[in-house]
Amino acid sequence: xxxxxxxxxxxxxxxxxxxxxxxxxxxxxxxxxxxxxxxxxxxxxxxxxxxxxxxxxxxxxxxxxxxxxxxxxxxxxxxxxxxxxxxxxxxxxxxxxxxxxxxxxxxxxxxxxxxxxxxxxxxxxxxxxxxxxxxxxxxxxxxxxxxxxxxxxxxxxxxxxxxxxxxxxxxxxxxxxxxxxxxxxxxxxxxxxxxxxxxxxxxxxxxxxxxxxxxxxxxxxxxxxxxxxxxxxxxxxxxxxxxxxxxxxxxxxxxxxxxxxxxxxxxxxxxxxxxxxxxxxxxxxxxxxxxxxxxxxxxxxxxxxxxxxxxxxxxxxxxxxxxxxxxxxxxxxxxxxxxxxxxxxxxxxx
Length: 350
What we know:
The termini are far apart. The protein has 2 domains: 11-137 and 295-323, NAD(P)-binding Rossmann-like Domain (Rossmann fold, 3-Layer(aba) Sandwich), CATH 3.40.50.720; 138-292 and 326-349, Dihydrodipicolinate Reductase, domain 2 (2-Layer Sandwich), CATH 3.30.360. A 7-stranded parallel beta sheet has the order 3-2-1-4-5-6-15, sandwiched between helices. It has 12 helices and 16 strands. With 350 residues, the protein is an alpha/beta fold.
């Protein structure tokens, strides 16, 4: 299928295009008139998706067939990887992106995958002249960007805490599969090193309305990894409200369903970062709708900035390291009616 979309920004390959998050990513690429190739292993699903987005090419590829991955990346400038569980899929797609000398972004919330992207592939990415940005989704990038905005002009901090409140968490099948593939304890960043959280502590968090006071449980995901890679703080911790965690662990919790024409569910979120230094703290927060759908504008905006900017950085980068966090979030909030950003960079005595 010949593409009729603008190609001045370079060709973007979307792995897992027909999945729940992948479909939001494809729609966002079309909204921004960006040239996309839809890639996955199911030709029928891809064809049906392509019929909804005229002008986008389709390529079938399998994670265990390197030659099919190379064909899928032919002519690509950038890869957006949405096909989890990433513990199975990230390595072959990253390696294919490096062979193609294409930038790579994924939306993984899997700690060991994001850590491996930094530790195993950074040097190869620099040699290829490309940038790898792992975890450019809700869990990971959004937490990192909010924490970086809260950090402001501080060079270092004593502690960074990120807390998420969801009115409900209706997990996708992909989220459930990811949980099964990653059963071990998650790691917080404590005393300047990653430390497994064997018995997650709980506490109380004072969220803004409508959530208010909530019980939260330590729930470190990839924001812990990406924040600790570039912000100087010996302590980085992440929490989730208990109500959402109970939804996630309940096998009877249904998958998300569309509440509007865009396909967004009606699940609401609030994410807050608190950065403490001595007796002072700074905060930033974002609130919006649908943690899966919000990943699409996050990763697509990042892709657009990578392709359009005079990028001099290569290797593996955290989102808050490569982008101006507050500008990125404010620009995103200006485009999305459901996203609300509040940044308090004034020092507040504790």
